[in-house]
Each structure stands twice: as C-alpha cells, then as structure tokens.
Amino acid sequence: MLVMFLVAALWPALLTAADSAATDYTATLQAPSAAHLLGTDQLGRDLYSRLIHGTRPSLLIGLGSTAVGVLLGSVIGLLAGIGPRIIDTILMRLTDIGLAFPEILLALLVLAVLGPGTVNVLLAIGIGSAPGYARLIRAQAHTIHASNYVRSAVGFGIAPVVILARHVLPNAFGPVVVLATISAGTNIIIAAGLSFLGFGARPPDPEWGLALAEGRNFVQHAWWIALFPGIAITLVVIAVTVLGKTLEARGAGRR
Questions:
Q1: What's the topology of domain 54-250?
Q2: pTM
C-alpha cells in the first residue's frame, strides 16, 4: 500500500492522465461512474485525478514535517545529552513545556506567528513534534556518552566530533527511526486537519485535507467528494503506523 501511495506521489501520470484542475460545469456533482471513477466535485473536476495528484502535497507535508521534527529534536537532544549540565537543564525544561501541549496546538501557535501556507504548516508541525524527539535523543545520547566504550575513546584522546559521529549518533538514532515512522502517520493527520481548518493548502490545490474541507458542504448530496480523500488519509496512516509498529517489534526482539 505504501508503494502505491509513493507511486502516486512521485509519478501521478502513471495512474491518471486527467488534469486535476480541469473544470467541466456540465458534469458537476456526478456520482462515481465509468466516466469518472470517483465522481466529480462542485466544479466538475475529476475526483480520481485530484486524489492521485493530491498524494504528493499530502505526503510531503507529513513526511517533511517529520524530518524537520527529527532534525530539530536531534540538535536539542544532543546538546542536552552531551553538553554541560546547565544547558541540559535549560533545554529539558523548555522541552517539558513543549510536551505539555498537544502537537496540533503547538502547530497552531507557530502558525499564528508564521501565518498560513503549505510550507508554514510543514514547519509548524515539525516544530510541534520536536520536543518528543529531543527527549528521546537526549536519553539515548546521555546513556551512550556514559558507556565504557565512549569513555575508552575519550581516554585514547579521540576528538569529541569523531566520538559523536562514530559512536553516539549511530547508536542513538535506532529508536528515533521507529518513533519517526510511527509519528509520520500522526503528522499526516495533523497536516490534513490544519488544511481542513484553512491554514494549509489553497484552492485549487488537490491536497487531501483541503478536499475534505471542500466536500463538507456537499455531504448530503455528494458524499463522494469528502469520502475518498478521507479513505486515502486513513489508509496511508494505517500503513505507516503498521510499518512503525513492525519496526518497533523487531527492535524489541533484537534487544
């Protein structure tokens, strides 16, 4: 299923040749049929084409925000884990404040400063998810930095940068990959929710959250407009979460 979504995101032309923005006012609000597999919307646009072309922006926001969260959380966590005690204390207190708020609320606070837009939503979700990664990486880095093989490396006079790159980072990022995979599904949901609220993509972008927002006013008469983007969001989140849980279980088995 993830391969199918990746193909839709990277090569949408393989799955549909229709223009996702093309309007046809003679074919508005048509139910799914042979001519339009998923029906049409209020402007006569083909919903199958819009669903396929909406995969890229939807996944880009979800996965991109995960990358931003991991990067920002890694910097904070490493500084706290191997830095002076005062730096550790300050950064972890700030992290605790961030963890006290739901990710979507933190994202909304960031958007209140940055303003709406696809890139700003990506950054906002990434910043909102960073405290969780920072806490995890700090714990990993602190444990690894206190291990015997790192102490031996320090005793042999190996440069701190080499120790960080060779010993701390590779061993600290195993659990982070699992957490990032699981969190990617959550970020996709948050991204769709923010677009639904009007903070993300703008018409005529076919992004899934925006498609849900456009279809909410036609649920009684054209249920298919909101149904299929909702199914797509559900399927990709389930697939990503199952992948993350599988990686988590295999990691626990190796330990």
A1: MetI-like fold (1.10.3720)
A2: 0.84
